[in-house]
Amino acid sequence: MGTPTTESEEHRALRKAVTALGTRYGRAYVTRVVAEGAHTDDLWSEAARLGYLGVNLPEEHGGGGGGIAELSIVLEELGAAGCPLLMMVVSPAICGTVIARFGTEEQKRTWLPGLADGSRRMAFGITEPDAGSNSHRITTTARKDGGDWVLNGRKVFISGVDIADATLIVGRTEDARTGRLKPCLFIVPRDTPGFGRSPIAMELSAPEKQFELTLDEVRLPADALVGDEDAGLLQLFAGLNPERIMTAAFALGMGRYALGRAVDYARTRQVWKEPIGAHQAVAHPLAQAHIELELARLMTQKAARLYDAGDDLGAGEAANMAKYAAAEAAVHAVDQAVHTLGGNGLTQEYGLASMITAARVARIAPVSREMILNFVSHQSLGLPKSY
Question: Which end of the chain is more exposed for a tag (fewer CB within 10 A), N or C?
Answer without folding.
Answer: C
